[in-house]
Structure formats: C-alpha cells, structure tokens
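hiii, so i know i said id send this last week but things got crazy w the move. better late than never?? heres the sequnce for the chain we talked about at the cafe, plus the structure i predicted for it. fair warning i was half asleep when i ran it
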Amino acid sequence: SYGIYDTFALSLLYGFSEEDQDMLAATARQCLPKLPPDLYQAALRARTKARIESAASQYTALRFYPESDYLIARQNDWFATIRMASIRTKAWDAQNRQHISGSSSGEFSIALMTDGSEFDNSTIPTMKWNRLMNVTRCDAIEAPPMSYGQSTFVGGLAQENELGMAAMQYLLAPPGQDTLTGNKSTFVTRDALVLLGHRLRCPSREPVVTTLFHAPLEDGAMYLRNGEKLETGQDGQWELQAGDVLLLRNVYVQIL
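okay and structure toks below
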C-alpha cells in the first residue's frame, strides 16, 4: 500500500526512532483491513502529521548537495526540494516503465509540500509533468531522451538554516529541435521561496511558460487574487501583474 510506504518514508525523513516506526507499522496493520484505502491513508497521514508537528522545531534544515544538483529545505510547516540537472547529473531516468512522464523533473523543478496532500497517490497519475513548479518549457520542444543534462553552469549554496540558493544557466536543446535558454535562480528563506528568471528564450512560435506554483485543487479551500475569490470550478486564465497576491489553498504567491 502506498499509505504504508508514505508513512515509513516520513518516519525515516523525520528521524523517528525504531520504536516509533514499529508503532506506525502496527497502526498500519490494524487500519488496513478496517478502512477503505482513501480513509486508511488519511488516518495514517493525520497521525503521522501530529507526531511530526509535535517535534517539528527539532527537524528544520537547509542543505545543498553539489554532487547531485539538489537542494532540500525543511521548515516547521513546509518542505521543499529543488532539483536541477547539469552535464554532471542525469536530467531524468525511467526504469520498468516507471517515471516515463518525468522528463521535466530535472529542469529546476520544485516540489513544495505543506501537508503531504500535494503529491499523494491520487494526484501523481493526473499531474501535468511538463508543468511542475518552477519548470520552464516551450511546448514545441518534445521531451528529451534520458541522458545527462546540457547545462554547464549549475550550483547552489546553503547557510545553516538561514538562507539557501540554487541557480543555473538553463539549456535544453534536444537534437533536431529548438533551443530553450535562460538564467534561473531560487532563493530560500525561513518563510519563502523567491523564484527569479532572466532572458528566457526559445526561437519557436510556441510561448515559453514557467509554472510558478503547482498543486491540486481542493473542494472547500480558499483561492483568492488580491482578496477576491478566484473561480476554480472550471479551467481558466488570468492575466497577472506585478504586485498581485494570490492565496492558493494555504500558500501565498506574490508577483514581484
């Protein structure tokens, strides 16, 4: 069950003791035959979240892994990873026909989580994988083959738990296709992610699109633009301007 795997992943991530992990395993065995899969996973998530929140202040961290082009930010009430790819690291990979849609995962993608529902097993199969948070794409460029990245200038820094940054001179140029280039960076503080982009260009007639935020819509959640309700019952487009502030469920997005 994905619920069991998710729970054990969280227990390892947040440093639960072996005794705590045994408790979680026993809970899983008790809940599994009694609850439908969705309720079972919700129960495990709620119990795990409560344990995490009770000791969250002990597990804040910010670290950049230069050999992997990877940054992790873990705060009391949110968690984010930033994944890049360079000539040193694989842009993406797939085995046993798994992750075959993940060609954009190494293109400066950000996975932002506040409660874990952003990437549960009901959301992942329906995600637009070329529209992950912070990914810049031109739809005229098809998914590149599995290989190392093409960017040569990629790196990052992290200072204790105060400030981190990741940056890359982006290059996506699959053979026989158009070329997408740009300068991108992300700064991480205790309270925010600051996403910057400069000279994002592609010679194709198709527009160049950068996704600033990516998460499933939830019934009953608040979605506001400058304090006014956004209609989320159907697909739509809104023209945003500098200074606009969006509330998307429990995340604020401000256009600089």
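btw The CA atoms of residues 156 and 208 lie 25 Å apart. thought thatd interest u
miss u guys!!
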